[in-house]
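Please check what follows.
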Amino acid sequence: MDDAAGSWRISLQCTQAEAEAVAAANPIDALPVLLAREADPADPAQWLIEAYLAAEPDGETVDLFRALAPSAAGEVPATEWIPPADWLTVSQAGLEPVAAGRFFVHTGMHADAVPEGATAFHIEAGRAFGTGHHETTTGCLLTLDQLKRGGARFANVADVGTGTGLLAFAALKLWPGADVIASDIDPVAVEVAAENAAANAIPLGALPGAVEFVTAAGLAHRRLRRRAPFDLLIANILAGPLIDLAPVLSAALRSGGSLILAGLLDHQAEAVAAAYRRRGMRLAGRVAQGDWPTLRLVKRRT
């Protein structure tokens, strides 16, 4: 999106469940900047989804947007032109810095707010999921921080569904000599992650102390297969894909290796955990962030 050209915003009220679905994964390529938030903090039942576009939305785009909120059937989304001078403020609206253990995730608007001693990452809102502001990403950061504080050591790490690359960066900061590889099914996310690596001075490459990015669904890439087995795997996706990937992710872990799973809701946690228990994994920890738990599992030693 060209900042100098301004943008268009469309918005529509929705239910909390619809907002959570949008926040977990942007399902529409035609809406590259898609946000969900509480419309009124005093009324937890009122939520809002918003999309920002470079051009005025046509009828097809509006219909795609309306389909995200079936509860608002019959309502017409509000459409508004955002002048060019306002785009930076609008794109970062509501994105306050996130503190998760030792980590501090911020946009450029809060670069001067980094606490002393924090491990900080500059991640702008944009085309990929994982700015640290969703409970799933925050839960993964907290889990990584807990592992480090507990004395865990990892030398071979994979981040599946990396989005912005944030979790791969966090793992490398905690274990600086590790081999870290990160994948995403979306090539745009991989491009964004590489840009974020440059912005945060994260070395790139297939070497210890660097992050390698690949475009892949799950572990379906020769580089991922070649670098397995891993002693730490992170997968912040959705409950359905996590269950489907249970055989693959479990098999790609070393005996005694750790697995961090996120992207699931409370009512999905047992089904996800059960899929991995059947593959020789045991639940070793859980971090609750609202309705979005993060599970930590360990592969039983053989």
